């Protein structure tokens, strides 16, 4: 009987240790980098992410096809609008945002590739335990492949590899992540955006289509 109870406890313990699909913290602030395998795109951005009220702010600079760019956008999914902000000129471009909000999360159809330690497991605070998941997404008659790495504890995003036939491989790396909103004002349109008129052309649809 004791052997049976021990076996059950060990089995439950092993199951509990298996990585689970997860959703990232609803409030995040940090930085990220984006680059493509064909070297056409290189970008760095500061992001503010609010899944509770479905808002994202991205302030980004980089180069695309050897042309430098700077983008400051505020995506408000509940309101269905996106603001392209120019603080220097105190101007705003307001466009429709038609797609629904999708939180940062490991999709339910994702398959676990493995669990590793980034850094070192030789001593305390020398490494971070992460899980890597992979799968496919269908969108507008296009099949996209992805690999997503998140921390085991907290489900904080670490990196995402995304592939379509049109774009090739694109890697996004998250760093300096802070749980919470460092500056909540970043998710409120500037006062000079109050007179912006809604344009007919749709804006970017997702977190990554801005990049």
Q: What do you see in this structure?
A:
A twelve-stranded mixed β-sheet has the order 7-8-9-10-11-1-2-3-4-5-6-12, with no helix packed on it. It has one domain: Lipoprotein localisation LolA/LolB/LppX (outer membrane lipoprotein receptor (LolB), chain A). It is built from one helix and twelve strands; from the N terminus they run αββββββββββββ. The protein is 8% helix and 52% strand. It is globular. Strand 5 and strand 6 (91-96) form a beta hairpin. The protein has 211 residues and is mostly beta strands. It holds the Pfam family Ependymin.
Task: Write the topology of this structure.
Blueprint: H1 2-17, E1 27-36, E2 41-50, E3 55-64, E4 67-76, E5 81-86, E6 91-96, E7 111-119, E8 127-139, E9 142-151, E10 157-164, E11 168-179, E12 198-202
Parallel strand pairs: 6-12
Antiparallel strand pairs: 1-2, 1-11, 2-3, 3-4, 4-5, 5-6, 7-8, 8-9, 9-10, 10-11
The CATH topology assignment is outer membrane lipoprotein receptor (LolB), chain A
Count of spatially separate domains: 1
Q: Roughly what is the average pLDDT, rounded to an integer?
A: 87
Work out the helix count.
Answer: 1
Largest sheet: 12 strands, mixed
Which superfamily, in CATH terms, is the homologous superfamily?
Answer: Lipoprotein localisation LolA/LolB/LppX
Unreliable spans: 1-16, 205-211
**How much helicity do the residues have?**
under 10%
Question: Care to count the β-strands?
Answer: 12
């Amino acid at each position: 009987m004791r052997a049976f109870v021990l076996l059950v406890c060990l089995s439950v313990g092993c199951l509990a240790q298996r990585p689970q699909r997860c959703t990232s913290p609803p409030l995040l602030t940090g930085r990220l980098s984006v680059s493509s395998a064909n070297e056409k795109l290189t970008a760095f951005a500061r992001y503010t992410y609010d899944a509770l009220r479905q808002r994202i702010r991205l302030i980004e600079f980089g180069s695309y096809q050897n042309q430098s760019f700077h983008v400051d956008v505020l995506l408000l999914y509940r309101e269905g609008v996106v603001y392209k902000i120019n603080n220097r000129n105190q101007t705003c471009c307001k466009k429709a945002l038609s797609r629904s909000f999708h939180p940062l999360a490991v999709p339910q159809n994702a398959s676990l590739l493995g669990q590793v330690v980034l850094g070192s497991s030789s001593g305390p605070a020398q490494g971070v335990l992460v899980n890597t998941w992979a799968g496919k997404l269908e969108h507008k008659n296009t099949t996209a492949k992805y690999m997503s790495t998140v921390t085991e504890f907290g489900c904080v995003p670490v990196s995402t590899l995304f592939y379509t036939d049109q774009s090739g491989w694109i890697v996004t790396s998250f760093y300096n992540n802070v749980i919470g909103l460092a500056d909540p004002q970043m998710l409120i349109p500037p006062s000079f955006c109050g007179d912006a008129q809604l344009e007919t052309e749709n804006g970017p649809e997702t977190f990554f289509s801005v990049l």
